[in-house]
Amino acid sequence: MLINHREEIKSLQPYKPGKPIEDVKREYGLDNVIKLASNENPLGCSEKVKEKIKEGLNNLAIYPDGNATKLKEALSKSLNVSVEEILPSSGSDEMIDLIVKAYVNKGDEIIMADITFPRYIQTAEMMGGIPVIVPLKDYTFDLNGMLEKITDKTKIIWICNPNNPTGTMVKEEELVKFFDKVPENVLIIYDEAYREYATKDDYPKDSIKFIKNYPNILVMRTFSKAYGLAGIRVAYSVGNKEIIENINKVRGPFNVNSLALEAAITALEDQDFIKKSYDLNLEGKNYLYEEFDKMGFFYPPSETNHIFVNVERNGQEVFVELQKRGVIIRPMGGTFIRVSIGTMEENKIFIEKLKEVLGK
Ligand SMILES: *Cc1c(COP(=O)(O)O)cnc(C)c1O
């Protein structure tokens, strides 16, 4: 090679996203393909957001507001935090990148679960950080196991609640006990990508109070999942001013595009859409639970819009066979697959095809 790249990227693999619907249609000559692979909202997004985006098309020649002032103000009002405690980003994916760029030095230890969002480990390695992996216990975060791994070198602990891909959650009570024991020089990133789907009373519905009580917690939220805006890339994080200031130094000047800024503000206002999405998800989840129960399949209870289920057959094979039949899911290693909860129609097609593949 002519040009030397950074040592840290040598062993990295590019992110493998789910196959797009169009590719699967072409590959297998199918007319109808459903994608239950990326935890997207099957209802799409709020109609009000679509209208707002159409208006925004008149301003494409103008740079977006690099400070995202209007979005920050809207969030500040609805969350009751100051604008200095908020930082919008182009999806949580960008925020994960920005966090490690701002905080991870070579040799820093980054604590995370074994089965969780893959960007945590990839970005740690990208910066020369050392991933410290704590296996899930009963498919749930082992917070005590994580505490035991804290050393002088620990920089970040990643908590995904509820967790992708297992769908499991940690209760507020346990989380607070854990926060109390983490030293203040360790950054806790609390990723709540699926918070809107959580059903249980002991799920921490109001995580914003954490950032008021603990200066080392950053809460990450996204518009990609329940809000149905994965395609336009917008998310935000909330935390201590000092953390926000540091991350703000390493972001691009116009990191959130103008359509995304407007979409996010309008999406926040349409909570009826979130309620509808929650209801549909719950209905679909109960239907899928029932069908999995009939087949005798194990799944940990999900507080998200996806289910991590043991189909007792090689997951990769099941993935390929389902794909041939026009259903895209995610194989998860071993005999587990992850299926996103779709519309009732999609859920029924998935079950029908799954039974076909498994000979049930
Ligand atoms: C989907 C997802 C994200 C990324 O969301 P974007 O805002 O679309 O980048 C972050 N964390 C978890 C756990 C996710 O599942």
TrEMBL record:
It is an enzyme of class 2 (transferase). Keywords: Amino-acid biosynthesis, Aminotransferase, Histidine biosynthesis, Pyridoxal phosphate, Transferase. Its EC number is 2.6.1.9. Residues 32-354 form the Aminotransferase class I/classII large domain. The modification N6-(pyridoxal phosphate)lysine is found at residue 225. Coiled coil: none annotated. Pfam families: Aminotran_1_2. InterPro entries: Aminotrans_II_pyridoxalP_BS, Aminotransferase_I/II_large, HisP_aminotrans, HistidinolP_aminotransfase. This is Histidinol-phosphate aminotransferase. It comes from the Bacteria. The keyword Amino-acid biosynthesis applies.
